[in-house]
Write a structure and sequence with these properties.
The chain is mostly beta strands. It is built from 4 helices and 40 strands. The strands form 7 sheets. The protein has a 22-stranded antiparallel β-barrel. A 4-stranded mixed beta sheet has the order 1-5-2-8, with no helix packed on it. Strand 32 and strand 33 form a beta hairpin. The longest helix is centred in the N-terminal third of the chain and has 8 residues. The radius of gyration is 24 Å and the shape is globular.
């Protein structure tokens, strides 16, 4: 590696400089070529969570001064983000090798992945600082085009009045089957109803959350029509790591999370546990959940790594009903568990993974509904760098899903139903010139109920200069009917066909200086074959009769005028010919993060426009503005204390009709990390 005589980019962290070490850090691609303009973030062991960032110079280098160990994160357009825990540095410095990101430009909790768009961080640290309580809460706070329904301080629930429905660019379905959740590379959803259960996505073991806005069906198939939320688990990288976080606040609302893990030679283990609870801001609105995971891993060779993970969670949520017709003793209890066996590989010219997984669950609702469901599958994905300008990506997945349901109160047996889906996909990325990148992909999927479907996508990125780029894409998405729609209720129709979507979009990204970056996306989405309910009870029918044209604009800007002060704001506008209930036309997110000495202050807010409360557009909910203030005070290492005020301005508003949200409420807690 050629060293520069003068390293122009220098990082100095505010830790104990008398004990800090100076070292050179070099960033290269898989072929060993330098990567200039990569953004390097370093958080040293005694910097109280603070970090400083710099950009690699023309030799792909920066000089850093930090007390080890340190956490280093490197991002660069066209490459996957790299996170590394560094405990020791050789005399010649540290070289970090980035892997190309094939069609991978996730907005780690921010935007649609397109080659050429720079990922932004959605790490556990960033999520905790902004006051998010769940994965879905973090998505809504950080993604301008995402909106999540809720009915109280905590607990989304299920069934008729269940919330936690996330929509991305107006697509989400009810229940939530239009946005896919992926955990550690594997799709995660309820086998009978085809949707995720948001109360199970706590932050107990989430190391990183990323969001793809727009269809991702080439990669993930059904349910990824509106987008994908990916959750990556937290695994130890070096030595022992233990963290305990506990908080308590208004309405006896609390969250308590414990994680422990260790890297021992070629192996590691990780344990997590979490408990969340609240009495609720209204009578009969209590919520209680607990979850836990166990993970084991071993490096079979320098190339292959194996891991085994098991998880289980249970929640009990009460439904107080709308204020006009309150309910008593209305609740749901859900238990879910699963296991995943993973194999990951990485060489200079090829990298990928395989997942063998199985999940199962039980639902118990006071109206008499009982169900058991499962999903068992295999997913394989591998990337090949044919040459520095051409990368090929391919894979396949097979899943068997279904379950059994009945209602003990009405004596209706819905029977047992299972379906099988199998698919193969391939994507390619070609860079004919340094300023032009082309990509294309296709997926063929066959379902035992609906037959086969072909899903293509195309895209191009034009790098106008080192700091400005234009990306365009055309992609098809789809959503298969769920088993509920085919065989259960409200009006089962086994002849239903998949919903379809064509999405066209263009994104302009600018980074005029290291402290300022922004992007703007325009999109046009043509939805057809939408499954809708027609008629009146009891003469209801489900059919593929719906259609919509969604046109929108999304914009985001991040500005860091001072090393310890940063602003972020995002805006989303949606115009639809068939706007779904609880989807706003306007949404604005904004935040300010300020490090004052050892204290970290976060002020974040969200302004939401009016939404329709029913499909017939007979009732409209007014817009609202809510804000959160969170302060984190590091105490004597390894302790820290935090205080959060939610709905800071005590606004009165409803996200779901008849369920007023709580006024200003507080929460305080502590964290221990060693």
């Amino acid at each position: 590696m050629r060293k520069s005589a003068s390293l122009t980019a220098v990082i100095v962290l505010g830790c104990s400089l008398a004990m800090a070490a100076d070292f050179d850090l070099h960033v290269v691609d898989p072929q060993g070529a330098v990567v200039a303009g990569a953004v390097v973030q370093i958080r040293c062991a005694r910097a109280d969570g603070r970090s400083i960032e710099a950009t690699t110079d023309e030799t792909g280098s920066v000089r850093a001064r930090c007390e080890l160990p340190a956490d280093i994160r490197v991002t660069s357009p066209g490459f996957d983000p790299l996170v590394r825990r560094v405990d020791a540095i050789l005399a010649e410095g540290l070289t970090l090798r980035l892997s190309p990101a094939l069609l991978h430009t996730t907005v780690d909790v921010v935007i649609r992945e397109l080659p050429g768009l720079e990922p932004s961080v959605g790490s556990a640290v960033a999520i905790e600082r902004n006051g998010a309580r769940t994965v879905f809460d973090a998505v809504e706070k950080l993604v301008p085009g995402a909106y999540v329904t809720r009915r109280g301080v905590m607990g989304y629930g299920i069934a008729t009045n269940g919330t936690g429905v996330v929509s991305i660019r107006g697509i989400g379905e009810q229940p939530n089957a239009g946005v896919l959740v992926v955990v550690d590379g594997r799709p995660d959803y309820q086998g009978l109803f085809g949707h995720p259960l948001p109360d199970f996505y706590s932050l107990s073991d989430a190391a990183n959350v990323s969001v793809t806005e727009g269809p991702a069906s080439v990669l993930y198939g059904s349910n990824a029509m509106g987008g994908v939320i990916e959750v990556k688990p937290s695994y130890p990288h070096h030595g022992f790591d233990t963290r305990l976080t506990s908080s308590l606040g208004s309405y006896w609302t609390g969250q308590h999370r414990l994680s422990h893990g260790a890297r021992l030679g070629r192996g590691f283990y990780a344990l997590t546990a979490g408990v969340s609870h609240t009495n609720g801001d209204r009578p009969n609105s209590a919520f209680h959940s607990q979850d836990g995971t166990v993970a084991l891993g071993y490096d079979l060779s320098p190339i292959w790594k194996a891991s085994l993970e098991g998880r289980y969670g249970h929640f009990h949520v009460e439904d107080p009903g709308p204020v006009s017709a309150p309910l008593q003793d209305s609740f749901a209890a859900v238990g879910r568990g699963g296991v995943s066996l993973g194999f990951d590989n990485s060489k200079e010219r090829t990298w990928g993974y395989a997942r063998i997984y199985s999940s199962h669950g039980r639902n118990f609702i006071t109206d008499g509904f009982r169900s058991v469901d499962s999903a068992t599958g295999v997913r394989v994905q591998q990337s090949f760098m044919v040459n520095p300008r051409f990368t090929l990506d391919g894979g396949s997945d097979v899943v068997v899903y279904g379950g059994r349901a009945r209602n003990v109160a009405t004596q209706v047996d819905f029977g047992e139903h299972h379906l099988t889906a199998a698919a193969g996909f391939s994507r390619a990325q070609w860079t004919p010139f340094s300023r032009l990148r082309l990509n294309a992909g296709v997926r063929y999927e066959h379902n035992s109920a609906y037959g086969g479907i072909v899903v293509p996508e195309w895209g191009a990125v034009i790098r106008l200069s080192s700091n400005y780029s234009l990306a365009t894409s055309i992609a098809r998405g789809f959503r298969n009917p769920t088993l509920r729609e085919l065989y259960l209720f409200p009006a089962p129709n086994p002849l239903l066909k998949p919903e379809r979507l064509w999405n066209y979009q263009a994104t302009f990204q600018a980074r005029p200086r290291n402290s300022l970056k922004a992007w703007t996306t325009f999109y046009y989405a043509d939805l057809s074959n939408l499954i809708v309910t027609t008629g009146r009870f009891p003469l209801l029918a489900l059919s593929n009769a719906g259609r919509a044209l969604n046109r929108g604009l999304e914009a985001n800007a991040s500005w860091k005028p001072l090393p310890r002060l940063s602003f972020n704001s995002g805006y989303a506008y949606l115009r639809s010919t068939n706007l779904a209930p609880y989807v706003p036309q306007h949404k604005l997110n904004y935040s300010l993060d300020w490090e004052v000495g050892a204290t970290f202050l976060h002020f974040g807010g969200m302004t939401v426009g009016p939404t329709w409360a029913d499909p017939g557009r007979a009732q409209q909910l007014g817009g609202y503005t809510v804000a959160t203030l969170k302060a984190t005070f590091p105490l004597e290492r390894p302790y820290s204390f935090f205080l959060m005020l939610d709905n800071l301005f005590n606004r009165r508003y409803e996200v779901v009709a008849g369920y007023p949200m709580p006024g200003i409420n507080a929460l305080a807690g502590f964290s221990v990390h060693f």
